[in-house]
Write a structure and sequence with these properties.
Strand content: 5-15%
Distance between the termini: 72 Å
Length: 477
């Protein structure tokens, strides 16, 4: 590459960091790090009615939690490219918009909402599939302009699209893509309130910030010819574009915020105890594949392996099971001390005089190889310490057996005589009951588990007895 690579992730501060946004940021970050370039975070905050206080900071914090740290951002500015928020650059956008008007590449439009709606309805009734502005304001007379001003109308500025031009570009993901200018109507670049539209501001920003490559979602593909027209009018070189495919759910539908089976925001994953390294790894493979189908990558390995040519041109399926497997893998591979440090915030509410912090953390290790996320430890501990004993039909049937009563009585009798509670003593206890009764398998263990925990599966029995203590177990039996 003949110039320093500069890529950007440009979120709107209208909510929390979404899966799709995190993936876009990740691929841009990897691209920059792969080629010793800069990863820039720029804030597109012109949708002022939808902006949410604190959303900008929360998104950047969540990216840093994932390990995606910007070289430049509103909090780490390079004076050469500042400012990093669009609302701080309104004068700049206006300057360039007026330049286009002066050159005849753009014009003032005084049409109001009612007139535009009428225009759309008329085109639709005539079988036109995609609305195009009819250019009624392109050649207004001085008298018409004066009349509009007297009515109090404030004009927007529209870009005048060229006719008979084909915009071609080599997409990093899709290969050669082309659009005909005649299919695109004259679009607004500056609204009547002086705020630029996305397609105009993004061109000015990318040019001024010397962005060389732009990896973004495929929903922006149709915006590209509009942006290329602006680049052409200014005689600027556009960045190289790459449009990543959509993320779909297991049913093959485009992922939407109505998919309640899939967590949508990074903050939700943090709250449930997913590890950032696991999310990073999972997102890396959500639209990118390695040559050898390798599954586990840390950040350094991902940077080294990343090749934009291996970005998928097919939709990427969000697989919850794959994510859970990946997170459980990373949890299992934590050192015990690191695991305790990370799990403690989830279980500290269970601390008590009899369940000290140290004992609680030692107990938490019993769950380390059983869980898919750290929040599971909280749930499993709560199930043990505060059981509901709401039995399903299978459990009721098990407890109604005569063998269950026999096993329970013997277990209670033998446990009361035990002085040491550990793996060896509890296993020996069950062996004695088996030998005396010949009751085995599910019929031997399940009645005790159900009566002690209210559940038909969970930790090994010796761990359960150790956690609850002999007196509480005898009481429940």
């Amino acid at each position: 590459m003949d110039k320093k690579v500069r890529v950007r992730y440009a979120p709107s501060p209208t909510g929390y960091l979404h899966i799709g946004g995190a993936r876009s940021a990740l691929f841009n970050y990897l691209f920059a790090k792969k080629y010793d370039g800069d990863f820039v975070i720029r804030i597109e905050d012109t949708d002022i009615e939808r902006n949410i206080e604190g959303a900008e900071k929360s998104q950047i914090d969540d990216l840093e939690w994932l390990g995606i740290v910007a070289d430049e951002s509103p909090y780490k500015m390079n004076p050469k490219y500042a400012p990093y928020r669009q609302m701080e650059k309104l004068d700049l956008y206006r300057k360039y918009a007026l330049e286009l008007v002066e050159k005849g590449y753009a014009y003032y439009c005084y049409c109001n909402e009612d007139e535009l709606s009428e225009m759309k309805e008329e085109q639709l009734s005539n079988g036109v599939k995609s609305f195009k502005y009819d250019r009624r304001c392109l050649n207004l007379t001085e008298e018409e302009i004066e009349n509009y001003k007297k009515e109090g109308r404030k004009p927007c500025i529209r870009l005048k699209m060229e006719s008979g031009v084909t915009f071609k570009f080599n997409d990093l993901v899709r290969g050669e893509v082309s659009f005909k200018s005649d299919d695109i109507g004259d679009f607004v670049i500056m609204k009547s309130n002086g705020i630029p539209t996305y397609n105009f501001a993004v061109v000015i920003d990318d040019h001024m910030m010397e962005i060389t490559h732009c990896l973004r979602g495929e929903e922006h593909l149709s915006n590209t010819p509009k942006q290329l027209q602006i680049y052409k009018y200014f005689n600027w070189e556009p960045p190289q574009f790459g449009h990543m495919t959509i993320i779909i759910n297991p049913n093959g539908k485009k992922l939407s915020k109505r998919d309640h089976n899939i967590l949508q925001f990074m903050s939700q994953y943090k709250e449930l105890g997913y590890l950032p390294e696991a999310i990073f790894n999972f997102l890396f493979l959500l639209g990118w594949t390695s040559e050898d189908n390798k599954e586990i990558f840390n950040k350094e390995e991902a940077i080294k392996a990343f090749d934009p040519s291996r970005l998928s041109s097919s939709p990427s399926m969000f697989d919850n099971k794959r994510l859970e497997y990946m997170n459980s893998y990373y949890i299992k591979n934590l050192s015990d001390e690191s695991y305790k440090e990370k799990v403690y915030p989830f279980i500290k509410e269970f601390e008590s005089a009899s369940l000290t912090k140290d004992k609680l953390l030692e107990i938490s290790l019993y769950f380390k190889n059983e869980i898919t996320k750290l929040y599971d430890v909280k749930q499993m501990l709560n199930d043990l310490l505060n059981p509901t004993f709401e039995f399903d039909d299978e459990a009721k049937q098990m407890l109604s057996k005569e063998s269950s009563s026999i096993v329970s009585s013997l277990f209670k009798e033998k446990l009361s005589k035990l002085e040491v509670i550990d793996e060896i003593s509890i296993k020996a206890l069950f062996k004695e009951i088996l030998k005396e009764t010949n009751i085995k398998g599910k019929d031997l263990y399940m009645p005790i588990r159900l009566k002690i925990t209210g559940k038909n599966h969970g930790l090994e029995m010796y761990h359960i007895v150790e956690i609850l203590g002999k007196d509480l177990v005898l009481s429940r039996l």
